[in-house]
Queue: 3 jobs
Job 1
Amino acid sequence: MISVQLKKCSRISGHRVNLRDASISDAEFILSLRIDELKGRFLSKTVPDLVKQQDWLRAYQSSQGQAYFILENQEGKKIGTVRMYDAQGDSFCWGSWLIVQGAPPSTAIESALIVYQYGLLLGFRAAHFDVRKGNRSVWQFHEKFGATKVGENDEDFLYSIDEAAIRKSLDRYRKYLPVSIQLNS
């Protein structure tokens, strides 16, 4: 089996959304999303402790095998988060996908396309992830993208998406990401 490594990238530029590597200075923003009653209801429990969030980000900075991004609009305003982690062979997991209230509706589609395109550029050929069963809008979103439900546990549906489905979605939703992403290491 091919083993691919997840790598951090300081900035990934999309069409209207950019992904920037998370830093300690983003702790308050990340924590505000994670403890938001509406946004955080489908996440693992988060303690509302800014110092713990800063400590996690400090540890993240020196870690390998994951990439945690802040989503920004073209003006540099923070509009969400997404994380890539848990590489297994040629498949990566992604999650911690939170978007601020009031962000353009296209933010979800474009950020997902950027994550998948970045994964393919790194050499991945598939992705896997879980979605809380109660988070209907998100698991429906993933299914429209071509993800297949491969299992479930008490809380989550487990999904996988292969390279063919990823490429089909990149083409199908091209208007949201009409050009290739630009990487800045």
Note: Strands lie at 11-13, 17-21, 67-73, 78-88, 91-99, 126-132, 148-152, 156-162, 182-184.
Job 2
Amino acid sequence: MKAVSLIVAAAIALVAGTSVIHWQTKAETLRGLLIRENGLILNQVQYRLEDKLTNLTQGWLNPGAERRQRVDELESDSLEAQRWAIRCAWVNAGALALAAVVGLCLASAIRRKVFAGVSLYCWLLGVLLPVLTITVQTKVPHIGQITLREETKSLLLLVQRLWAEQNMLLVGLIGIFGIAVPLLKTTCQLLPDSAEYAHRFGGFLAKWALVDVVVVGVIVAFLGGRGDAETHAEIRLGLWFFAASGFMSVVASAFASCITGDTFGRKSGNHDLPDLAD
């Protein structure tokens, strides 16, 4: 029964995760078309003037009607796709919570692998999905709100951009210590109990995994942008999955430490250590 529940939870999480990526990609594509439709700053000024003329004439003069209809459709479709992505993310979270609960009822060695697998899965979604959206706007007198820049970044795209800009220090901090090291550590936790050196290496890597630093950095950027009247920041789904990956990895490391300590204690003749295996 436990194995069946675990398989069902994994299947639901896989389908929901694929759906999250699909709907989020669709939402970002539609958002990109919307930004392209709004055009440059001069185009936005022209559109605002057209809107004011339409309002002043109560629709008698209606320049840009087709453009407004396209913009409304794109914005509506983008919001709908984003809502579906959030719904699928909640289903995903429920399936992962079920897998974690079932994992707690299994033997210690399997329990560690379950939490490590959940951590790896959350890491994948956290890297692929957007983590933060920054929008810079300004208010022009008699014109209205003008968008100067809008960027939505995932951790993977952020590292690629830093690499293109030759900012190797941040590439090392985020790419190596924030992404690669947590991935390698989680992979070590998925290995069999007989791979003692791999588990020791994973425990060593745990000291260098800076998932918490990346999460705190994104939250600081969010709070900083939120406090500026001209800058708006929005936390996206990727950050929550990335934070969940770090938490699940810590739990898996705790189980790995218990099992490793128990194994080494038996080899050294110390029988005072508790036996956590079911």
Note: The first strand starts at residue 130 and ends at 140.
Job 3
Amino acid sequence: MNTLPRPSPPRQSELAYAGILQALFAGKVKFGSFISQSDLTAMTGFGVGPVRDALRLLETEGIIVIHPRSGIEVIRPSTELARSTFQFRSIIERFAARQFALTAPLQTMDDLIALHDRAIADLAGCASDVNLSDAMTGLEKDFHAAITASLSNAIVDSAYRRLHLLSQIVRMNGLVTRHTAEISIGEHLDVLRAARARDPDTAESAMMRHLTNALHRNLGLM
């Protein structure tokens, strides 16, 4: 009897990478600060080799800058970072929205619409001043990842993983209220319903409107 091969366990460098990111998003390492490699090895519990490999990857992704004499500089969320990130996302996602509308299975669309409908229902019980940033991060990922995946392009997938990470950093200090969440979910649904109608032009326009509004919300302009 043939059995499926077991997936390889994650390498130490992959675990160190995840540990460093966890420290960043938990606030143990401040964005815009300097930190040493030895501090990170102590914080994550991994050895020098895995941490060094993880740091090389994080530098490639633009999350840190390694200064030979000054230590490791963590990027700071900024207006320029937000603009650059959303500009790159718009280049990818406007075409992804068209492809999604033309090729995605209707069941995929229906599942995403149902997911968003449940999210709206869940918001009804939330206080108006509660920060829903963490809850919206998962929904944003599900929505945008599904649409980008419709391009079936491994290079785009790799670039988009970095963009998603940068988008999380941009949103780090943002407040997502119930009202803001409802607007964002409504914009998602505009894209999904246009795609469900197999209307790529409207889906593309709705995606561009969502990304533009999301940038403005992150910059405090809406």
Note: The CA atoms of residues 109 and 128 lie 29 Å apart.
